[in-house]
Amino acid sequence: MGFVVPADRLLAFALMSFLLIVVPGPSVLFVIGRALAHGRRAALTTVVGNTLGAYVLVVAVALGVGTVVERSVLAFTALKLVGAAYLVYLGVKAVRQRRSLQAAFAGDGPAHGGLRTLWEGFAVGVANPKTIVFFAAVLPQFVDRGQGHVVVQMLLLGLVFNLIAVASDSVWGLGAAAARSWFARSPRRLAAVGGAGGLAMIGLGVTVAATGRKD
After folding, report:
1. Nearest 10 degrees: CA dihedral of 101, 105, 108, 112?
2. Are 3 and 153 in contact (CB under 8 A)?
3. Nearest to 198, CA basis, from 36, 25, 21, 45
4. Dihedral of the CA atoms 190, 192, 195, 197 (nearest 10)?
5. Minimal CA–CA distance to 155: which of 84, 72, 88, 63?
6. What is the spatial distance between Cα 132 and Cα 69, in angstroms, rounded to a whole number?
7. Each residue of 10-42: pLDDT tens digit?
8. Beta-carbon count within 10 A of 174 CB
Protein backbone atom coordinates (compact mmCIF):
# COMPACT_ATOMS: atom_id res chain seq x y z
CA MET A 1 0.00 0.00 0.00
CA GLY A 2 2.18 2.78 -1.31
CA PHE A 3 -0.26 5.48 -0.35
CA VAL A 4 0.18 4.97 3.41
CA VAL A 5 1.48 8.09 5.15
CA PRO A 6 5.04 7.61 6.49
CA ALA A 7 5.05 6.90 10.23
CA ASP A 8 7.11 9.97 11.13
CA ARG A 9 4.72 12.28 9.33
CA LEU A 10 1.70 10.53 10.81
CA LEU A 11 3.03 10.89 14.35
CA ALA A 12 4.01 14.53 13.82
CA PHE A 13 0.57 15.31 12.46
CA ALA A 14 -1.10 13.47 15.36
CA LEU A 15 0.91 15.50 17.87
CA MET A 16 0.09 18.80 16.17
CA SER A 17 -3.57 17.80 15.98
CA PHE A 18 -3.62 16.94 19.68
CA LEU A 19 -2.12 20.32 20.61
CA LEU A 20 -4.79 22.09 18.56
CA ILE A 21 -7.68 19.97 19.83
CA VAL A 22 -7.00 20.10 23.58
CA VAL A 23 -7.22 23.90 23.57
CA PRO A 24 -10.97 24.59 23.93
CA GLY A 25 -12.40 26.14 20.79
CA PRO A 26 -15.90 26.60 19.34
CA SER A 27 -16.59 22.86 19.12
CA VAL A 28 -15.46 22.05 22.67
CA LEU A 29 -17.37 24.97 24.19
CA PHE A 30 -20.46 23.97 22.25
CA VAL A 31 -20.21 20.37 23.51
CA ILE A 32 -19.90 21.63 27.09
CA GLY A 33 -22.95 23.84 26.62
CA ARG A 34 -25.00 20.93 25.26
CA ALA A 35 -23.86 18.72 28.15
CA LEU A 36 -24.95 21.24 30.78
CA ALA A 37 -28.26 21.95 29.08
CA HIS A 38 -29.30 18.48 27.93
CA GLY A 39 -27.00 15.88 29.50
CA ARG A 40 -24.57 13.16 28.47
CA ARG A 41 -26.45 11.80 25.47
CA ALA A 42 -26.81 15.24 23.88
CA ALA A 43 -23.12 15.95 24.54
CA LEU A 44 -21.98 12.74 22.83
CA THR A 45 -24.39 13.29 19.93
CA THR A 46 -22.93 16.77 19.54
CA VAL A 47 -19.44 15.28 19.50
CA VAL A 48 -20.49 12.99 16.65
CA GLY A 49 -21.98 15.94 14.78
CA ASN A 50 -18.84 18.01 15.28
CA THR A 51 -16.72 15.16 14.01
CA LEU A 52 -18.83 14.68 10.89
CA GLY A 53 -18.64 18.41 10.22
CA ALA A 54 -14.88 18.43 10.64
CA TYR A 55 -14.49 15.48 8.28
CA VAL A 56 -16.48 17.31 5.62
CA LEU A 57 -13.73 19.94 5.83
CA VAL A 58 -11.12 17.20 5.38
CA VAL A 59 -12.87 15.97 2.24
CA ALA A 60 -13.15 19.55 0.96
CA VAL A 61 -9.42 20.11 1.45
CA ALA A 62 -8.58 16.78 -0.17
CA LEU A 63 -10.64 17.76 -3.21
CA GLY A 64 -9.00 21.16 -3.48
CA VAL A 65 -11.61 23.43 -1.94
CA GLY A 66 -9.32 24.11 1.01
CA THR A 67 -6.80 25.81 -1.26
CA VAL A 68 -9.49 28.14 -2.58
CA VAL A 69 -10.65 29.03 0.93
CA GLU A 70 -7.10 29.56 2.16
CA ARG A 71 -6.24 31.89 -0.73
CA SER A 72 -9.54 33.76 -0.90
CA VAL A 73 -10.15 36.35 1.80
CA LEU A 74 -13.79 36.59 0.72
CA ALA A 75 -14.46 32.84 0.96
CA PHE A 76 -12.66 32.53 4.30
CA THR A 77 -14.45 35.54 5.78
CA ALA A 78 -17.84 34.33 4.55
CA LEU A 79 -17.41 30.91 6.20
CA LYS A 80 -16.14 32.49 9.38
CA LEU A 81 -19.04 34.94 9.64
CA VAL A 82 -21.63 32.24 8.95
CA GLY A 83 -20.20 30.18 11.81
CA ALA A 84 -20.05 33.22 14.11
CA ALA A 85 -23.64 34.22 13.32
CA TYR A 86 -24.87 30.71 14.07
CA LEU A 87 -23.12 30.69 17.45
CA VAL A 88 -24.62 34.09 18.33
CA TYR A 89 -28.08 32.86 17.28
CA LEU A 90 -27.79 29.78 19.51
CA GLY A 91 -26.48 31.94 22.36
CA VAL A 92 -29.41 34.37 22.17
CA LYS A 93 -31.78 31.40 22.03
CA ALA A 94 -30.16 29.89 25.14
CA VAL A 95 -30.48 33.16 27.07
CA ARG A 96 -34.14 33.54 26.14
CA GLN A 97 -34.93 29.96 27.14
CA ARG A 98 -32.78 29.84 30.28
CA ARG A 99 -35.78 29.43 32.62
CA SER A 100 -37.00 26.38 30.71
CA LEU A 101 -33.97 24.31 31.72
CA GLN A 102 -35.70 23.00 34.85
CA ALA A 103 -38.39 21.41 32.69
CA ALA A 104 -35.73 19.90 30.47
CA PHE A 105 -33.99 18.35 33.48
CA ALA A 106 -37.29 16.99 34.79
CA GLY A 107 -38.26 15.63 31.41
CA ASP A 108 -41.28 17.94 31.18
CA GLY A 109 -40.01 20.14 28.38
CA PRO A 110 -40.03 19.54 24.67
CA ALA A 111 -37.56 16.87 23.59
CA HIS A 112 -34.33 18.02 22.04
CA GLY A 113 -34.23 15.45 19.25
CA GLY A 114 -31.13 13.48 18.45
CA LEU A 115 -31.14 14.51 14.79
CA ARG A 116 -31.49 18.16 15.71
CA THR A 117 -28.63 17.91 18.19
CA LEU A 118 -26.54 16.07 15.61
CA TRP A 119 -27.24 18.77 13.02
CA GLU A 120 -26.34 21.62 15.40
CA GLY A 121 -23.07 19.89 16.26
CA PHE A 122 -22.39 19.33 12.55
CA ALA A 123 -23.03 23.00 11.74
CA VAL A 124 -20.61 24.17 14.42
CA GLY A 125 -17.99 21.62 13.37
CA VAL A 126 -18.12 22.47 9.67
CA ALA A 127 -18.02 26.24 10.34
CA ASN A 128 -15.18 26.15 12.89
CA PRO A 129 -12.62 28.65 11.53
CA LYS A 130 -9.76 27.18 13.57
CA THR A 131 -10.32 23.78 11.97
CA ILE A 132 -10.79 25.28 8.50
CA VAL A 133 -7.43 27.03 8.68
CA PHE A 134 -5.71 23.98 10.15
CA PHE A 135 -6.92 21.63 7.44
CA ALA A 136 -6.36 24.11 4.61
CA ALA A 137 -2.90 25.31 5.67
CA VAL A 138 -1.39 22.55 7.81
CA LEU A 139 -2.77 19.19 6.70
CA PRO A 140 -1.36 19.31 3.14
CA GLN A 141 2.16 19.84 4.54
CA PHE A 142 2.15 16.32 6.01
CA VAL A 143 1.37 14.61 2.71
CA ASP A 144 4.22 12.75 1.02
CA ARG A 145 3.54 13.58 -2.62
CA GLY A 146 6.26 11.18 -3.67
CA GLN A 147 4.14 8.31 -2.38
CA GLY A 148 1.25 9.29 -4.64
CA HIS A 149 -2.45 8.93 -3.75
CA VAL A 150 -2.46 12.42 -2.22
CA VAL A 151 -6.23 12.49 -1.68
CA VAL A 152 -6.16 9.19 0.21
CA GLN A 153 -3.28 10.41 2.38
CA MET A 154 -5.25 13.55 3.28
CA LEU A 155 -8.33 11.52 4.13
CA LEU A 156 -6.24 9.25 6.37
CA LEU A 157 -4.63 12.21 8.16
CA GLY A 158 -8.05 13.77 8.60
CA LEU A 159 -9.31 10.54 10.13
CA VAL A 160 -6.46 10.62 12.67
CA PHE A 161 -7.41 14.20 13.58
CA ASN A 162 -11.05 13.26 14.06
CA LEU A 163 -10.29 10.21 16.20
CA ILE A 164 -8.27 12.41 18.55
CA ALA A 165 -11.06 15.01 18.52
CA VAL A 166 -13.72 12.43 19.40
CA ALA A 167 -11.71 11.24 22.40
CA SER A 168 -10.91 14.75 23.66
CA ASP A 169 -14.34 16.27 23.09
CA SER A 170 -16.04 13.26 24.70
CA VAL A 171 -13.98 13.75 27.86
CA TRP A 172 -15.02 17.42 27.98
CA GLY A 173 -18.67 16.53 27.40
CA LEU A 174 -18.80 13.72 29.96
CA GLY A 175 -17.10 15.90 32.55
CA ALA A 176 -19.62 18.68 32.02
CA ALA A 177 -22.52 16.20 32.11
CA ALA A 178 -21.24 14.83 35.43
CA ALA A 179 -21.38 18.32 36.96
CA ARG A 180 -24.89 18.83 35.63
CA SER A 181 -26.63 17.19 38.63
CA TRP A 182 -25.36 19.93 40.95
CA PHE A 183 -27.14 22.53 38.85
CA ALA A 184 -30.31 20.44 38.67
CA ARG A 185 -30.95 20.90 42.40
CA SER A 186 -31.80 24.57 42.02
CA PRO A 187 -33.92 26.34 39.38
CA ARG A 188 -31.94 29.51 40.09
CA ARG A 189 -28.65 27.74 39.36
CA LEU A 190 -30.15 26.34 36.18
CA ALA A 191 -31.32 29.75 35.00
CA ALA A 192 -27.89 31.18 35.84
CA VAL A 193 -25.97 28.49 33.96
CA GLY A 194 -28.36 28.73 31.02
CA GLY A 195 -27.91 32.49 30.82
CA ALA A 196 -24.15 32.30 31.36
CA GLY A 197 -23.81 29.57 28.73
CA GLY A 198 -25.83 31.62 26.28
CA LEU A 199 -23.75 34.74 26.93
CA ALA A 200 -20.56 32.71 26.57
CA MET A 201 -21.77 31.40 23.22
CA ILE A 202 -22.61 34.91 22.07
CA GLY A 203 -19.15 36.06 23.17
CA LEU A 204 -17.61 33.12 21.37
CA GLY A 205 -19.45 34.02 18.18
CA VAL A 206 -18.31 37.64 18.41
CA THR A 207 -14.73 36.50 19.04
CA VAL A 208 -14.80 34.19 16.04
CA ALA A 209 -16.08 37.02 13.87
CA ALA A 210 -13.45 39.45 15.13
CA THR A 211 -10.40 37.22 14.87
CA GLY A 212 -8.65 35.37 12.09
CA ARG A 213 -6.89 36.44 8.93
CA LYS A 214 -6.39 40.16 8.42
CA ASP A 215 -5.01 40.03 4.90
Report:
1. 70
2. yes
3. 36
4. -80
5. 63
6. 8
7. 898 898 888 778 766 777 778 887 887 778 898
8. 15
